[in-house]
Design brief:
By secondary structure, this protein is of the alpha/beta class. It is 39% helix and 15% strand.
């Protein structure tokens, strides 16, 4: 097990500057965005057709002793806006091809969310079974949009030696372990999950219990926390649509690792991950609106480095 960083929080810096900064925090593994929601500040898909740019990119990594845990292209390939969907699909396909060229085995993505019909213009995330219109929408989404795309895209990725790690996130059709396993049953074993505990906390799902449910299905892990504000829960429950920056009024917000749950919880989380087959990277993702990217990154790195120790012969892997 080792600590890495998802680099969009450092998009204002060049890749060499990012790697130098992370090295000072005892981190030499990065997750890089290639477009869609994460942007492509540190990894351009144009390298697919530019051999010299690809060589230079690989030299930068080698010079800093850095490795890549995953390429990430979180988007909505199922968006009812066909232009938007095609754009996100193209980014996803090219990301798979770049991962193959770089020898990276995992690409992180969202499952996407369709509209409620072929005439829709915006995604429609269904969260309840009644009135019965909603179940009809859900059946149409999965049968007519989700399954055809993911069967094809999973096959494409497998042909290029790349696994797809779906980040379970409310707002998309895959948002919890049940929907993750449903997609995997449709698309096959080349589709697994990017496990982000922060997205489960605010749904009242115990992430440690969820690791047991998703045994051998976890391909990549984000390190991010959530803090629940019980004083505000009676107003909204967990389905809170206020802006993330309205921290005082929200029922929950994303936090830097250790600010929502302490070291005891994170030690158990890391232990359970390894117990159930995941022994790879914890990729720090910063979305804490109360801490600057600099402060959030530094605190998360220090916190996780005190819990996870790089495995060496004869050495314990955690403290």
């Amino acid at each position: 097990m080792r600590v890495g960083v998802f680099t969009p929080l450092l998009s204002h810096l060049s890749l060499p500057a990012v790697l130098k900064k992370l090295k000072a925090l005892q981190i030499d593994t990065v997750e890089l965005g290639t477009g869609n929601y994460p942007g492509d500040a540190h990894c351009k898909l144009g390298m697919l057709d530019d051999a010299s740019a690809l060589v230079e990119f690989q030299k930068i990594l080698a010079d800093h002793g850095a490795t890549i845990s995953a390429l990430s292209c979180h988007g909505n390939a199922l968006h009812p806006d066909k232009v938007r969907a095609q754009h996100d699909r193209e980014v996803s396909r090219k990301t798979v091809l770049l991962a193959e060229k770089l020898g990276i085995s995992v690409v992180v993505d969202f499952s996407g969310c369709p509209g409620d019909s072929p005439q829709a213009t915006a995604p429609n995330w269904v969260t309840c079974p009644w009135p019965p219109d909603y179940l009809k929408v859900l059946d149409w989404q999965w049968n007519e949009v989700v399954a055809p795309y993911w069967i094809e895209h999973a096959k494409f990725a497998a042909e290029h030696g790349v696994k797809i790690a779906i980040e379970m996130h409310p707002g998309f059709v895959v948002y919890n372990p049940e929907t993750m396993l449903r997609l995997r049953s449709i698309a096959g074993p080349n589709v697994g999950c990017n496990f982000d505990p922060s997205h489960l906390f605010w749904q009242s799902i115990d992430p440690i219990a969820a690791v047991r449910v998703l045994e051998r299905v976890i391909f990549h892990v984000h390190a991010k926390d959530t803090q629940i504000y019980s004083a505000n829960l009676p107003h909204t429950g967990v389905l809170d649509t206020k802006p993330y920056t309205d921290e005082r009024a929200r029922s929950w917000i994303f936090r830097t690792c250790g600010y929502g749950h302490g070291g005891e919880w994170w030690r158990e989380f890391v232990s359970t991950l390894r117990m159930f087959g995941y022994d790879d990277v914890l990729s720090i993702e910063h979305e804490d609106s109360l801490l600057s990217p600099e402060e959030g990154l530094t605190k998360a790195a220090t916190f996780l480095n005190s819990i996870v120790i790089r495995e060496q012969p004869g050495a314990a892997w955690w403290v």
